[in-house]
Structure formats: structure tokens, C-alpha cells
Amino acid sequence: MVSSDRNLLKNPSKYRPNRRQTGSAIALTLVVAAAGLVPTSSVAAVQALPPQCSGSSPIRCQFNVAPGNYQVTVELGSPDRAANTSMSVEARRQILSAVSTTAGQVVRTTATVNARVPEGQPTGQGGTGTSGLSITFGGSAPQVRSLTVAPASAPLVVYLAGDSTTCDQFTSPYAGWGQAFPARVGSGAVIANYGDSGESSGSFLSNRALFPTVKPLIKSKDLVFIQFGHNDKNTTSTAFRDNLTRMINGVRERGGSPVLVTPPVRRQFSGSTLTRTAQHVNGLGVDLPAVMRSLGRSGNVPVIDLTAKSKALVESLGPSASQPLYLTRETGDNTHFSLYGATKMADLVVQGVREQNLSLTAFLR
Predict the structure, then answer these.
(1) Residue 18: DSSP 8-state
(2) What integer pLDDT is reported at residue 47 of this predicted model?
(3) Domain tally, the chain
(4) Which of 271, 293, 294, 299 has minimal Cβ neighbours within 10 Å of its Cβ?
């Protein structure tokens, strides 16, 4: 806890707490401004970065808050210089693409963000990060005029259950599409990415840090996107269907809405077309995306066919032009995405959200 936090907690007359439960912690409705944590009513007059921020390019801010969802309001720009500013949180989660402003121009925006421990992959792969909420302002010339943080009020939460192609990758150049997805979602909805490297449909169910952790968090009308296949290389059709059904039923028990997302293709060509392996026909001959499509029809579960969408994209580019989507040139990896590729995959997921007319549609940027 920073010193300004301690001072406020010792002097409760300086703020008016709203004792609303956020997870297992009592959240105080406070926002962050120049003097540390101050009452909400004082923020309008403040035009400065809080002391929790440091640096100039990038600007890094660290807030000592409990895990949960937070409303971040930021004014981007400068009164005397042109600027180019992006925003990410926690483990490289993209929240705002770079915004260019002229001298004297200030753009105000809000976003709902998720803070958790670990801040990246739930099992801690790649690193656990820092407790609290980390916010980074990048871009070619970042300028931030003001910044406030407050507990979010009952946002629509979209949980992601998946593998390394979905997860918040801690280290560049790796990126999961779930890392780019938040930049497509406006205030009032939040992405909580529980994707984890190496997980199959079965291991995600059994690992305490994964589905057993996600399930109790799900509230009525929350969405849970379920994407598996990459690591179900020797999973039978029956086991794959049963594992997905258990997740679907678990989400519905909590009042949430499950969504099946078929896995994005690998970049494995035979001539100008992708191989069966690239399209997730596994070592037992099971067409995993086909199982998901069938389950969606029989179980009345929306399906975002990311396999078909990514196949069309990758094949349209061909063997050479599709390389930048993956880490082909960097590491010889034709499964995992670059940030560019993750962004393209997130765009395809957004396309699917619109096609299925999911409740998230109303919050898309």
C-alpha cells in the first residue's frame, strides 16, 4: 500500500466509502487523482496524473487495489504538444489502440478493466506480475492529462476459457487473441481472460486455477467463451464432447451464457490450402471443430466458428503473406500469434459476436 493510501485509511473523514462487495473484498468507491486517493466529487477539478504514475515513454501506473473490475477514465493529449497514446493493462492486455491528438486537443475516454492475481496466465506461466492494477500508456509520444480509477458497477463480464492462442501472454512477441480483444470492447463490459498455455478441454476442467476458479465468479448473464482443440491431440470425440458439455452445464448452473469458439487454424499448408492438422483434425482422426459445431446445434449454444474464419483469412493470404500473423519468422512457430495476428483473430471473434447477436454486441467499439 502506498503512503497516500495509508493516510486516507487513517483519516476516514476524508472520503465517503461505498461498502459494496467486490469479490471477497469490500471496495471503497474512491478515484485516483493528483493528491492520491480523493473523493469522487473532487476529480472534476483535477488535471494531473496521480503519484502512482511515473515515466514518460511509456508512462506506467500502479494502483494498490483488490482483484476485481475497475472503471478507468483517462484524458489523452497535451495542451502544448502533439501526442500519440495507447493504453494497456496488466499483462499486455490491449485496452486502447494508439490515439493521435494535436497540441491542445484532449480526448476523454473510459474503459472497464479486470485486475487479478496472477495478472497473466492463471497458473502463473511466464510470470505472475504485480498485485493490484497495472496501467501502461505507450504509443510513439504518450501524453496523459488526467486519470481516475474506481470500482466498476456491475459490468457485463466475458470470461475466456482457452489455451495459449487465447491467453494473456506475458512476453513479447507472443500474443493471444484474448489480449487484443479488450480493445474492441467499450465501457460497461469487461474481458476476464482465463486462457492458459498447454490446456486441453480436460485439463482446464481439472486444474483448480482454471474452471474451478472461474465457475464461482460467473454471475447471471455473464458470457463464457470456450475455445479448445490445440492440445486435444489425442482426445476422443466422446471425451471432447463430454468435457465441453461439463463446462457448458457449469456455466448455465451459475446463470451465465456459454459460447463455443472453435480453435483458430495453425499455419500448415499443403500447396495453397491448409492441412487437416492445421484445421484441428486430431491424431485420432477426430474433427474437433465439427464436434463443437454439432454440440452447439444440439445444446442450443452459440458457436463462433473461428476455425472457418481464420482458415479463410490465412488461405486468402497464402503461405508467404500469412507469416506475419504467426511467429514464423521470429521463432519458426506456426501456431502462436504475433500481436498483429492476435489482433486479426480478435477482429474475427468480434465479427462472430455480431453474427450471433450476443449481449456483448451492444458494448463493442
Answers:
(1) -
(2) 56
(3) 2
(4) 271
